[in-house]
Amino acid sequence: RSAVTVPQLHARKQAGEKIVMVTAYDASFAAAVDAAGIDVVLVGDSLGMVIQGESSTLPVTLDHMVYHSAAVARGLHKALLIADLPFMSYATREQAYASAARLIGEGRAAMVKLEGAGWAADVIHALAERDIPVCAHLGLTPQSVHKLGGYRVQGRDEERAERLLDDARAVAAAGADLLVLECVPSALAQRITAEVAIPTIGIGAGPHCDGQVLVMYDLLGLTPGKRPRFSKNFLAGTDSVAGALHAYADAVRSGAFPASEHSY
Ligand code: KIV
Ligand code: NA
């Protein structure tokens, strides 16, 4: 198996082959993900919550992201590494250039991810012009939690669904290479996936996306409290982290996950 590349991800969409993605924050988990044949590893700013114990992703700094991205990179041989640009690290083009340069240069990421459209589409365009691969992120965008008023499904009414579809077109036109759709109704994610040429990666976005992503600790059943609807404990039914990661990858590739019970 050779290393996963950005053009290969585009080819997967054309071929109708699902893209499997999971978060990791350190070298040991990264190596396990890589060994399981998972395509893409995301160093998510979810680390603010699952690693640091914060109640949102907002306190995460660029230094934190660079540190964890570099650690994950040391564990990988094949999987493509994406790192999140944290809150307010890409508010202007110049800031986005400087922040992406650190995630790619020091953090060894192959792609950066950022949330939003509108002004963020301009930032995507600026990065894409410099040949920096970008993953867009729409729907429930956790860096906007204070404006959204909580973590809940987005794009439920027709007006908001149309706006999300326009945003998806805009980030694709701006040059994004991938699009994460978080907590949007299945039917809307299906429309967006059919509409845009770039692969869509769903989390709480139903079974019709071109790929799926989960937070590692959700997948391992470590999430305290009530399980989020969109996640599944893949450690149940196996006896190792490797087994859980293989089960997750198989379930995404076969279309068994997500099922309607994990969707909106
Ligand atoms: O930070 C993260 O883990 C993410 C995924 C949930 C897509 O952005
Ligand atoms: Na994130």
Keywords, separated by commas or semicolons:
globular, binds sodium ion, alpha/beta, 8 strands, single chain, binds 3-methyl-2-oxobutanoic acid, eight-stranded parallel barrel, 264 residues, TIM Barrel, 41% helix
Helix and strand topology:
Layout: H1 6-15, E1 19-23, H2 27-35, E2 40-43, H3 47-50, H4 62-75, E3 80-84, H5 93-105, E4 111-115, H6 119-129, E5 134-139, H7 145-148, H8 158-173, E6 178-182, H9 186-195, E7 200-203, E8 211-214, H10 216-219, H11 241-254
Parallel strand pairs: 1-2, 1-8, 2-3, 3-4, 4-5, 5-6, 6-7, 7-8
Helix pairs in contact: 2-4, 5-6, 6-8, 8-9
The structure holds 3-methyl-2-oxobutanoic acid and sodium ion.
Report on this model:
The model has no long low-confidence stretch (mean pLDDT 97). This protein has helices at residues 6-15, 27-35, 47-50, 62-75, 93-105, 119-129, 145-148, 158-173, 186-195, 216-219, 241-254; strands at residues 19-23, 40-43, 80-84, 111-115, 134-139, 178-182, 200-203, 211-214. It has a single domain, classed as TIM Barrel. The chain has eleven helices and eight strands. Helix content is 41%, strand content 14%. It is globular and about 45 Å long. Strands 1-2-3-4-5-6-7-8 form an eight-stranded parallel beta barrel, surrounded by eight helices. Bound molecules: 3-methyl-2-oxobutanoic acid and sodium ion. Residues 44-46, 57, 84 line the site of sodium ion.
Query: How would a textbook summarize the main sheet?
Result: 8 strands, parallel, barrel
Based on CA atoms alone, the radius of gyration comes out at: 17 Å
The CATH class is identified as Alpha Beta
- Alpha-carbon distance between the termini? 35 Å
Q: What string gives the helices and strands in order?
A: HEHEHHEHEHEHHEHEEHH
Query: CATH topology, what is it called?
Result: TIM Barrel
Using the alpha-carbon principal axes, give the shape.
Answer: globular
Helix count, DSSP H or I runs of 4 or more residues: 11
The computed structural class is alpha/beta
Strand content: 5-15%
**CATH architecture heading:** Alpha-Beta Barrel
Q: How many strands appear in the DSSP assignment?
A: 8
The total number of structural domains is 1
Low-confidence stretches: none
Bound compounds: 3-methyl-2-oxobutanoic acid, sodium ion
| Major beta sheet, strand line-up | 1-2-3-4-5-6-7-8
CATH superfamily membership, which one? Phosphoenolpyruvate-binding domains
Mean pLDDT: 97
Which percent range fits the helix content? 40-55%
